[in-house]
Queue: 2 jobs
Job 1
Amino acid sequence: MSPPPVPPSTVRQARPLPARPRAVPFGRWGPRRKMLLVLAPALLSQYGLDVLAVGPGVWTFVIRLVWALSVALSALWMDEHSAPSVRLHTAFQCTAGSLCFIALVFVTGGSGSVYFNLFPCIPLVLCLLYPQDSLSATLSGALCSAGAAGLLWGAGHPVTQSLLWAGMVVTVTVVGAYGASEFRKAQRAENEGRLERARREALETLAISERRRAHSEKLATIGQLAASVMHEINNPVAFIGANLDFLEREVLSEQRAASREELAEVFRETRTGVERVRQIIGDLRGFSRMDAEVPTECALADVVSDAVRIARLRLQHVARLEVDIPAELPPVLAVRRRLAQVLLNLLVNAGDALEARGREGSEVRILGGLEGSRVVLRVEDNGPGFPPHVLSRLFETFFTTKGPEKGTGLGLALSREMVEQFGGTLRAENREEGGARLRLEFPVGDSTRSPS
Ligand code: ADP
């Protein structure tokens, strides 16, 4: 049978990276540009204060205008998505702002200006405005301390007073820069915490969806067994029904034909039938449960018997099953139910492969052994084996040669994934004497070591 095409969902194409937004004047405004474009008119409107404080003046207006324009133009040309551009524009705004402020103090009276006492505030305000860029604030601090000292010195004040003011501006700048760096650290720690929380949540969601996927595959395997399960339950139900009819006749008839021993035998048979139905349903329910996924040391013999109990429903009509697991085989570290699911997948596949051949001479064998430090489990059948084009694609997701009502193409792909989760390998090959062989290898289980 030729393999069906791989569904488009399995073919992943590289998606182009989203283009970085470009800085366009009046284009998309981020929070930083918006803030600056509000700041620019605010700076210009401060001319009103200048008029109140020192009266109208051309130079004060010109300085306010230059200051506002430097902020507005820099905001328009800044690329908020490029760190170097932001750093460059911030340095420009801080330098231009500081020089404009020094000029404003100069034209409004120098060391006697109403604005002179605001010198230490300029670097402090810049530290608050740009907490992520202490360098620009430091630059402004240096300019302002030199400006304050220069104006005092130029007005003939003692050098000590100049030095005092310069020192005060520098101190305020250092304190502001330190506060900004602490703020940055706290912000970084908060971001890292948020990222870590998001990463942990994503991993938890992934683990849940992994479990759901494995669970659906398990249910799909059980669905494939539905016909065999119905047949297996039908037999005891049929003779339970016949026994009940017999008992009803016996109870209602005037003369009892059956002896007490015969009646006891019929009850025993009926109870055995009910037990058998209960056992099948119990096995299926136990298998389909979603259990805790903590790997523990598992004896392969137990895992095999879990899978065989269910697989027998399917295999007994198509093949003879032989199991040979040496009792002294060391345990493997795995989730028992998951490993049983893997084995059940392989056994159901073997049953499907042998179906056309008929029960006569059909065989499935499960063989366990120790090879060096690896526990090896082989599941073999004497069916048609794997044609080359099937063998090369066996473990691809959604690859199946079965009809849609029978195959999902997930069994072997998921089985390999699960085996690898427990540090093992799953390989397929054709047997020399004909038929398929699936080979599972595990490191010897050691509860002190976790599987990858
Ligand atoms: P599915 O059983 O749903 O088709 P699997 O991933 O379990 O999906 O199997 C993929 C294909 O591998 C099957 O469709 C079948 O062609 C092939 N295959 C698996 N086991 C055997 C086997 N024992 N003998 C022959 N072919 C097999």
Note: The beta strands are 296-298, 320-324, 332-334, 363-371, 374-381, 425-430, 436-443.
Job 2
Amino acid sequence: MARRKIIAGNWKMNMTPSQAVALCAELKDLVKSDSVDVVYCVPAIDIVPVAQAVKGTNVAVGAENLYIEDKGAYTGEISAPMLVDAGVKYVIIGHSERREYFKEDDAFLNKKVKKAFEAGLTPILCCGETLEQREMGVTLDWIRLQIKSDLVGVTADQVKSMVIAYEPIWAIGTGKTATTEQAEEVCKGIRECIAEIYDAATADAVRIQYGGSVNAGNAAELFAQPDIDGGLVGGASLKADFGKIVNY
Ligand code: 13P
């Protein structure tokens, strides 16, 4: 089965609302594509203006986070129904920055994944190893543990529709991309893990991205790998280069 590629920008904590609107205008013609899905995952405060700015284009809006309750006394949090009402289609869950700086563990992330599905959002579930783990040779063990824990109670049909992003922590924002072989090896390992938990059809359908210093120069080779279905792009999603990555 041919999986449609998905290229998502993760803006992280960059772009004020007015800068966000300007970036959407700058990228509008550059990211046009009939053959891949394009997503901007933006800071919460940018969601409404970005949804407005990309209306009628091929770009979908994603959030960078959500909370596990629908409403109530959770000061500072944003719920899945709020995101949906604002026009959000995708949500990043379990980015290594949230795991590390905000101490989000797999049990909590599992709740977030389920909450996203309940609301009709498509999760982009992130996983990835530290440099120390890679050097110790436990990369795949670690990633399999993350995936299995984060997907407890998630159905095969849900997994078929979701996105998993493999992001080696040592490659994020460092300019040090994983080699094509390293990236493909882990993405293939994730697909095999999904086949073990679910079945071959689910593994065949789930889209797996690579993330970590993706740029206009390395995207084509990475995305040509059989198990890499696109990218989750940080720094390079904030400039015109993102258009080149989309049209790799
Ligand atoms: P960079 O592309 O800046 O390395 O960031 C990757 C990332 O963390 C995307 O979620």
Note: The mean pLDDT is 97.
